Amino acid sequence: MSEGTKIVDTTANPAPLGLLAFGMTTVLLNLANAGIIGLSSMILAMGVFYGGLSQIFAGWMEWKKGNTFGATAFSSYGAFWLTLVYLIVMPKWGGVAATDSNGMVAYLFMWGLFTFFMWIATLKHNKALQVVFLTLFILFWLLALKDLTGNSSIGIIAGWEGILCGLSAIYLGLAQVINETYGRIVFPIG
């Protein structure tokens, strides 16, 4: 009879990091979309370092834990933030044309389509995660619709909806931290 070795995973839950990186960056960008603040280097820096790199790092940690959904979501949306920032800044560096409205419609539509299918996967997860992905799917397609129609009012609506999306991710991330810290449900996630 052979004895096996059991490996116990004692690493931390990476989901709160990914959710908070996504949520905080999403709120800040959508404050600009809603016309409350301007698009500035603060939002772009958050997009690169917190929304981008921190989410990719969380995705890699989810991969190590064997969580395909978390690895795919965090790595993909981390890459989304990096590509979005580069779409904004690359034309300013010269030599690369800015993406036209049709290009942005395609970009945002594809991210919305990806998010729609990720939302379907959340139907096997908690309600709070379902809200994050449903509001994100709606956000992407509202932004695509704004670029398709040129209607800035849709952009403002998208901004407010995006603030809701980001706040839902912040809630879920902090709920996970607080619930794990206290060893019981303090903030319900469904």
Features:
190 residues, mainly alpha, 76% helix
Account of the protein in words:
It is a single chain. This protein has 190 residues and is mostly helical. The chain has one domain. Helices cover 76% and strands 0% of the residues. It is globular, with a radius of gyration of 18 Å.
Summarize the structure.
The protein is mainly α. It is built from six helices and no strands. It has one domain.
Helix-and-strand structural type: mainly alpha
Please report the distance between the alpha carbons of the first and last residues.
Answer: 44 Å
Unreliable runs: none
Please give the largest β-sheet. Answer: none
What is the total tally of β strands? 0
Structurally, how many domains make up the residues? 1
Mean pLDDT: 96
Q: C-alpha Rg, in Å?
A: 18 Å
Topology:
Elements: H1 15-33, H2 41-64, H3 68-93, H4 101-122, H5 127-149, H6 152-182
Helix pairs in contact: 1-2, 1-3, 1-6, 2-3, 4-5, 5-6
